[in-house]
Amino acid sequence: MEMIPHEELKPSNGINYAPMIDFLFLMLALFATLAISRAALYDSEVSLAELKHDAKSSPIRAKKEIQQINISINAAGSFKWMTEFQEYPMGNAKEIQEELARQYQIGALAQDKAKTEVLLHIDRKAPWEPIAKAIFAVRELGFSVHPVYELFED
User: Fold this and answer.
1) What pLDDT sits at residue 52?
2) For FRET with 8, which of 21, 109, 113, 142 sits at 20 to 30 Å CA-CA?
3) Does any domain span residue 108?
4) 15 located within any domain
């Protein structure tokens, strides 16, 4: 008679997956919590505005007391500063930020930043990265930014 049975001396052929599964669930819970808290921190002040077009009226109208700046983001992710008469291409969100700061310094924009709105006209197929960069660049200067979507009939 032996002191230790043969079954206990044999090496185990299986791997215990329970600790790995527990770890994966913990990581999933951590990243889900981070994603939700990040969205709550950064996306809480984004409001969408819908512009409705009439055939007789101009597509963009600003209130008299509120100054509006129109910036478009196309499907390729490139920017354009739109005025009533012309469109100016912008290379990146930093250029938009610099132009806003320049116009504010020379007095082209109202001194009260609450009286200036930046409308982002976003193409439906535009990537999210340039949209987010534009929003953060405008907010960093203290201006309010409003992503605008327009329903186009096919």
Assistant:
1) 66
2) 21
3) yes
4) no
Beta strand 79-82 pairing with 67-73: antiparallel
Q: Which residues have C-beta within 8 Å of that of residue 52, sequence separation ≥ 6?
A: none
Dist. CA 93–CA 39, nearest whole Å: 21
- Determine contact, residues 65/59, Cβ cutoff 8 Å: no
| CA–CA–CA angle 130, 134, 138 (5° rounding) | 170
Estimate the crossing angle of helix 93-106 against helix 128-140, to 10 degrees: 30
With b for 16 or more beta-carbon neighbours within 10 A and e for fewer, the 90-121 pattern comes to: beebeebbeebeeebeeeebeeeeeebbbbbb
Among candidate residues 74, 151, 84, 76, the one with its CA nearest the CA of residue 120: 74
Query: For the CA atoms of 50, 61, 44, 124, what is the dihedral angle to 10 degrees?
Result: 50
Q: Residue 132's domain spans which residues? A: 62-149
pLDDT at residue 21, rounded to an integer: 93
Which CATH number does the domain housing residue 144 bear?
3.30.420.270
